Fold this sequence. Notes:
By secondary structure, the chain is an alpha+beta fold. The chain has helices at 32-48, 74-85, 90-94, 113-120, 124-133, 226-231, and strands at residues 3-4, 13-16, 21-25, 53-58, 62-67, 98-105, 135-141, 148-151, 166-169, 173-177, 180-183, 188-190, 193-197, 218-223.
Amino acid sequence: MPQLALPSRKEARIEVAGEDALIIYLDDFIDNNISKEISQLENRLAEELSDCLVDLIPSYVSLLVIFDPLVSDYYAVKQSIIKHLTFDFTEAITNNNIIELPVYYSPKSGPDLKNIAKTSKLSVDEVIKIHQEKTYQVFAIGFAPGFAFLGEVDARIATPRLATPRAKVPKGSVAIADQQTAIYPEQSPGGWNLIGLCPLPLFEPNVKPHIPYQVGDSVKFTAISKARFLTLGGQL
């Protein structure tokens, strides 16, 4: 795809992604501040381009802008993007939501918990404690509605994906793959290491917002008992 010159913000670039889309790359490397900037840019462009916008799709370091070619063109959309790329993103870096999610950690709810502990030369309780200690950035949402890629996991418990993915991963499964963690919003196949279960719904198509977080937000996990998990609607 042809690259469009960007006079402001040296590290960012805009590329044509089709006759009705442009993609903005803020950087080439994943960074907590970059994902927050993408979230802020997404919000500002949603307002700026509301008349011609079809969709905005954020990812780790990029934002895909899809517009209606019958209403606007990529030159006009590009100018709007450039205008907002000159914005001071300090607000984006300091203001973001923190979503707290309960997790029932146990070998029964997280069948890979013992293996992670053994591989990491830690106790199961230490793995749980380490996983809870960090606040995780929402880097991207994809794979399935409500599936958020969160990072970065503490290096002590970072674990490669399973060699053979499971055919069925239970809804609400909290998992680790390499330096990322996530929750499966629905039952699906998956190759991540399962360490617990979250009882809360993470994708509700009949409720707005449909998911509790967006790119740029943060997620904090809190351990709960089996009894509390069941009280909140969790199923084993």
